[in-house]
Every structure is written in structure tokens, then in C-alpha cells.
Design a protein that fits this description.
By secondary structure, the protein is mainly β. Helix content is 8%, strand content 25%.
Length: 61
């Protein structure tokens, strides 16, 4: 996912492609221990109050 290298004023049309930085690597940013990280699809309703719903994917690291 490309990361724009500068901030963008809200409501103002911008040519963001002229200011792209390197792509974001969510693995690099969010996963500290790749060998210990798993994803699981949620089933059931016990975690609804935590904002997790059937079909969501949860990441555990």
C-alpha cells in the first residue's frame, strides 16, 4: 500500500501520486514475531462486545 510522503489538506484535491513514499509493509510495522503470529477467522458471538464478529479475521502475535 503506497504511503504519501506529505500530509494532505482535507477537502482540497491533490495529486498525491506526485508525493508517494515507499509502500507500507504492515508485516514490518505490526508483526514483531512472524514465526509466532497466526490468523484465525472468528466464529460465534461471544466477542461481539469487543467488536469481533463472525467472519472477522483476528491476528495473534
Amino acid at each position: 500500500m503506497p504511503l504519501v510522503g506529505s500530509s494532505a489538506p482535507c477537502g482540497f484535491p491533490s495529486l498525491a501520486n506526485d508525493h508517494l513514499d515507499r509502500p507500507l509493509d504492515f508485516n514490518e510495522l505490526m508483526i514483531k514475531h512472524p514465526a509466532l503470529t497466526v490468523a484465525v477467522r472468528i466464529a460465534g458471538e461471544s466477542m461481539i462486545n469487543a467488536g469481533l464478529f463472525t467472519g472477522d479475521i483476528a491476528i495473534f502475535s
